[in-house]
């Protein structure tokens, strides 16, 4: 169970002697298993993911849905009695009707029941029916590794905003026109860049895969502007080539935020999710009016989706007042599940000024003069200082611009948690589902004598 769901469950049960419970149970799964044969893991995953999506759309925001063996349990927050029975019956009927149209699920039946039960009984039911086939930390964006048939991916949300990242007023999310969770369009595995700029200073906006050294996964994606100049690839503010006017920087932040949202939508429409890191400059958020203009883009993301968005604040002034920082960072918490603060790479980080800001990760982008070389003693000491400073506030660290194995090894050895760079994986046009990736695999694919590409492709 993800930490978010666990907290939501605790809130739903707090101080209650009884709860209004709904239960959905799958019948005839053994018959479907026999028919599926070796494809059963995919069929099973498809059954749960499609059903979860279908049921979730029909619940209230504060209702709690928990996957259990053979179905789902619901805690209703606002309804009970006859109304809860009617809601469960309606959902079960609609779900049965939906699966009836799918050949491989013709024998599947869903039974629904609603009743008021003591909290202790609900917990017993949940404990006795823990699913055996769920991945570790199920629901955690960095641990969703259960294989899913591409055709099984449910529909999600689409944007009403234009396709290009610039020039729109934020865009909105709305339910997809089709109600069939299996009808979403598939996105090609290797599409051309989806977010090109016709007249922009940067060429396009891409997603850099981020490696989680602790969980050994490639799951987060850093949304970045990209520009290629004389064979060199520039990311983020580098693409401005010194043109650092406030207007241009705000335009960059806006384009990146829109592209991050739409890139995630395309992945979500296929039934998958992954954390998206969205960078924004401190000056873009410094005043309330500018902040509200930027937040209008993030506001359009449905609340239950925002847990997949990490907001990374760049170019934080050294002398920024603590009160202003606390106000700024706290205001961002409504739009993402984690806040990242980017500091200039170097020794002796000062993170005490971020106390009370709610920052979850501190990090840096390696300067171009550092990322192309073997790590010096000064580089290693700076990495060690990063980790020590972050741990003093019980936070994690990240590092971007990791360009060779020696730098990657130094970062891992000193305790850096998240890393991005060419040595790990090349930038993608669109984000991709989480996959397992260990250090040895990255190393083997980057050795000069390797028969494989020197870049990990996902």
Structure description:
- By secondary structure, the chain is an alpha/beta fold.
- It has 13 helices and 17 strands.
- The protein has helices spanning 3-13, 29-36, 40-56, 81-100, 119-128, 246-268, 282-285, 288-299, 322-332, 368-371, 377-391, 405-414, 439-446; strands spanning 18-27, 64-68, 71-76, 109-118, 157-159, 173-175, 195-196, 204-212, 217-229, 232-235, 276-281, 309-314, 338-342, 361-365, 396-400, 418-419, 435-436.
- It has an eight-stranded mixed beta barrel. Strands 2-3-1-4 form a four-stranded antiparallel sheet, with helices on both faces.
- Strand 15 (396-400), helix 12 and strand 16 form a beta-alpha-beta unit.
- The radius of gyration is 23 Å and the shape is globular.
- It starts with a helix and ends in a 12-residue tail after the last helix.
- The model is unreliable at 133-191 and 452-458 (pLDDT under 50).
Summarize the structure.
Helix content is 33%, strand content 21%. With 458 residues, it is α/β, with parallel strands linked by helices.
